[in-house]
Design brief:
Layout lengths: L8 H28 L3 H4 L14 H8 L11 H32 L4 H12 L3 H15 L5 H25 L3 H9 L4 H9 L4 H17 L2 H6 L7 H10 L7 H34 L3
């Protein structure tokens, strides 16, 4: 019997591609990390790939609580808490409403459900830049432009089509007999949703939460336009740190601020990556 070779051309090609892809994404992260702990004297030498000769965490302290973001020099710490205040309701509310919409479209089939679903799908593909000005006028008319409720509402609007699609496709894979049995037992709309469907929805809730948290946390343009100066998220503060420069540009501080801004999405992906794949496999793209 011929022994199977572990070093055939196909396998070598796959590993070469995977290593190249990993280096493509990890090399910029390496440069940011080593630059963020170098003093400016080492950075001026010009070797961005060299390990630091003298490690300093002063750039991290400055990025967090001392870097100038305009007129104030308080770092990106305030932007972090603003991002938390924006992300938490902008994740919970769209998931809850999207789950109810998906449940209704999958089982109850209200009149015009197909038309409503088509409108939601069209909304998912409309570029957000097209809707910014109309939303500015509408929010200004209601007096919530530049406020925390205003930016949360905007994120809810843009998240609703995707959240509805995720939950609708997930519930479409649930056996319809389960829903019929709950109806026979006297369950109503919200009772079946709360006691039958929602407990079964953990995999897709994790998928939706990962997508929404990372999307809202990494958002820049909506936070810049709708959040207002007092509620500016971390991404807006990061841009202010990088573009607010007097004298020498502090690359180590800029790199530290960039890493601090990306820590939450990175942590979510590393911790919940397995749940994300499991949720997708459980029916997030079925239906």
């Amino acid at each position: 019997m011929k022994r199977r070779s572990y070093f055939n051309p196909a396998r070598i090609g796959i590993y070469a591609f995977l290593i190249t892809a990993a280096l493509f994404f990890l090399l910029p992260l390496y440069v940011m990390l080593v630059t963020s702990v170098k003093p400016m004297e080492e950075i001026r030498l010009g070797n961005i790939f060299a390990l630091p000769l003298q490690i300093t965490f002063e750039p991290w302290r400055s990025a967090w609580s001392g870097a100038c973001t305009g007129a104030l020099c308080e770092g990106i710490r305030g932007g972090f808490w603003n991002s938390v205040a924006i992300t938490v309701p902008s994740t919970i509310l769209p998931i809850l409403i999207g789950a109810i919409n998906g449940y209704a479209l999958s089982f109850w089939k209200p009149r015009g459900a197909s038309v409503l679903f088509a409108i939601l799908m069209i909304g998912a593909f409309i570029p957000l830049q097209v809707m910014i000005y109309p939303l500015v006028r509408v929010l200004a008319a209601f007096g919530v432009f530049g406020s925390l409720p205003g930016i949360v509402l905007v994120h809810m609007i843009f998240a609703m089509p995707v959240m509805t699609l995720l939950f609708r496709n997930y519930y479409a894979a649930v056996p319809h007999e389960l829903f019929q049995a709950a109806r026979i037992d006297g369950g109503g709309f919200f009772r079946i949703f709360a006691h039958v469907m929602l407990p079964m929805s953990l995999p897709i809730i994790v998928v939706a939460a990962i997508m929404q948290v990372t999307g809202v946390w990494n958002d820049y343009i909506l936070g810049l336009v709708f959040a207002g100066r007092d509620n500016a998220p971390m991404t807006v503060q990061l841009n202010n740190v990088i573009n607010t420069t007097t004298g020498t540009r502090l690359y180590n501080v800029n790199m530290a601020a960039t890493i601090l801004t990306s820590l939450v999405p990175l942590a979510i992906y590393f911790i919940s990556g397995r749940w994300f794949v499991r949720g997708i496999a459980a029916g997030a793209v079925k239906g």
